Amino acid sequence: MGDRPEGLEAAFRESLGAGLVVTSGGLGPTHDDRTVETLARVAGRELVLDSALEREIGGVVRGLSERFRRPYEEFESGVRKQATIPEGAESLGLAGTAPGLVLEVDASVVVVLPGPPGELQRLWARALETVPVQRVLEAASRPDHRILRFFGLPESAVARVVERAGGEGEGVDITICAHDLEVQVDLVVRPGAESHADALQRALAEELPRAMFADDERPVEELVLDLAREQGLSIAAAESCTGGLVAARLTSVPGSSESFAGGIVAYDNRLKRDLLGVPDVILSRHGAVSAETAAAMAQGVRGAVGADVGVSVTGVAGPGGGTPEKPVGLVHLHASTPGAEEAMELHLPGDRAAVRRRAAASALHLLRRVLAQSRHTRA
Amino acid sequence: MGDRPEGLEAAFRESLGAGLVVTSGGLGPTHDDRTVETLARVAGRELVLDSALEREIGGVVRGLSERFRRPYEEFESGVRKQATIPEGAESLGLAGTAPGLVLEVDASVVVVLPGPPGELQRLWARALETVPVQRVLEAASRPDHRILRFFGLPESAVARVVERAGGEGEGVDITICAHDLEVQVDLVVRPGAESHADALQRALAEELPRAMFADDERPVEELVLDLAREQGLSIAAAESCTGGLVAARLTSVPGSSESFAGGIVAYDNRLKRDLLGVPDVILSRHGAVSAETAAAMAQGVRGAVGADVGVSVTGVAGPGGGTPEKPVGLVHLHASTPGAEEAMELHLPGDRAAVRRRAAASALHLLRRVLAQSRHTRA
Questions:
Q1: pTM for the whole thing?
Q2: Which of A286, A291, B4, B343 is 20–30 Å from A106 (CA)?
Q3: Three-state secondary-structure class, residue A155
Q4: What CATH number does residue B60 fall under?
């Protein structure tokens, strides 16, 4: 609905004065992107055309104009707009054609970042290396930040262990957050509070040993690929209701081709039979959404793709297709390895997108578990 | 890092007084979710245990406790916390175990929604049906909102047409926003400004006829499935660098099984040959990332899956794997139908996630284009 200029201006006026002010978005080439001009006005700085920046953006835009086969002059006013920055601002480099900026205003350091999350993260990393931002960070004391992650437990089970072990306070801030069947505990530990944090961590590790799976924020697909690579195993996925989400998450990790061979999205029963070799008798006796079909899919995809480990997902994502015996949210998973078979039955709440997302997350956790076991068995 | 109570309280104090105040998140069962208690404090309301709500949440939690095989009492304090609401608040129903709420505070209506986007949207739809929210909406005049969407053009090309046709003003607010190679123009039209909005709309339709593809916000995967269903055609996807994203987007649409048959994620060259029938000579002569391989993949997946229409994606998503001839961002797409073959070569900017996302979006647009053509040819 457009960024209202008055709202933006009020936000800048309110935040200038803080040590560090970070903005995201509103850097595009068109008139309705107003972050830079508003910042200049509030900070009382002239807007100046930075000619080095104009050349840099112009270079990118020339490529764009060729790719889109449009004359360069269509872009010219946009280039000038994006190369015009507040006096004293330092460029962080380009996100697309938009420069990120750092600007010191009295005691504040303002970091202007692009909106798209990937670009924001990339330029934020550069902002962290600039002198003004480094000075702000050095002045702030960095608390110790510990992470513990759990799968297959409700948030409240984790909260109870935390409470019994002394809970929040004594210099430890605790956040417990559930997302797609994972529960993440963040401990922010002030200096001197390490022993209370240690006690909390020990209690969680001792009382919930099976559920705890990580002490960092790496996504589960990365943990799965690391476990597979360590053991020289290749992975294949056979998906029905998740329709490619498991494969997409695994292939989102750079270098995943080393351990992920491929996947088959067998939406149709005919494909479960023709591509994955699920016997007709299993489909007709147990149905497409069943533990038996899931097992046959996981074993079948190992053969079809020629991989060591197969994982499968079949379920009712909804909103249609549910029956009293097989309601929306019922999902069967199966993992098949040279040494083990493991099944999981889920009854997932939520709409179609939530069921699919949670089923894919669970399939990755099932893979993680069987790969951790096979490493354990080998060792 | 935890929601700081002071920050929350200040935000409530600042926003109470507006006609409508909407919050999201902070409704979980644990102590660090503080939205409801903070609202009660700022609004000067007692917190009361709503026993009907307690029974409703208790029912859901009993199911959870059985699923997770944990004793019910582990959850009890969480149930009580989530059933305790400000006096006078009305429940919107549960998101998981958390109730959404509507509360009137003097001249303000406060709507308390959960954080997860799907749940937020579901309960927001319910909030819109409540008497207090309806009253607020009736008091506000609703401007006419028009949408125009384009593919394969830079934002600035669209902006130039808009400028030449008179641009913003005269009662029309314009937002131009680019996302994954789509450009969306939003026109918010105040009463009396319809003729200027019509002129803008006409100019865009006449000057950019090939690029304009929709006048609503339905995602491109939905447009593709509608076009296929109308013509009784089935679709299959063969993916390399997108690793399942195209299939995942198509299957995200309810009822997609009617037109989407299945997909093959052929990450490995061996699978491109064994599952998709890409000839060895094409792979060795042109490489896996080539127009020739893309064409063979699209044709091959039609046969493998038994579908009418095949779409394929092969490219270098990065960060590794690029060469001077085939740099990161090079992607070949191909669509194969009974009546037509269409290829697309892309040079995509951005990191691995952006290249994959944009390649998947482009593959869907290529499908949309060939399906729109085949409908045209048939008609």
A1: 0.74
A2: B4
A3: helix
A4: 3.40.980.10
Q: Which residue of B has its CA nearest to A318?
A: B254
**B232 exposure class (CB count in 10 Å sphere: 0-12, 13-18, 19+):** exposed
* Residue whose structure tokens are 């994955």: A276
| ipTM value > 0.90 | no
A271/B351 CB distance under 8 A = no
**Mean pLDDT (chain B, rounded):** 92
Provide the CA A245 distance to its chain's centre, in angstroms: 13
Give the closest of A30, A65, A248 to B245, CB-based. Answer: A248
Q: Which of A87, A109, A139 is the C-terminal boundary of a domain?
A: A139
Which of A32, A118, A351 minimises the CB distance to B174?
Answer: A32
Q: Which of B1, B30, B142 to probe by mutation at the A interface, max A CB count within 10 Å?
A: B30
Nearest to B73 by CA among A209, A175, A156, A203: A156
Task: Note whether A231 and A375 are within 8 A (CB).
Answer: yes
Structure tokens at A271: 């494909």
Q: Which of A199, A214, A229 is the last residue of a domain?
A: A214
Of B68, B77, B262, the CB nearest to A267: B262
Q: pLDDT tens across A150-193, in order?
A: 998 999 999 999 999 998 888 999 999 998 899 999 999 988 89
Angle at A71 (CA atoms; ends A68, A74), nearest 5 degrees? 95
Cα distance between residue A173 and residue A101, in whole Å? 33
What residues of chain A, 161 to 190, have a C-beta less than 8 Å from chain B? 167-168, 173-178, 186, 188
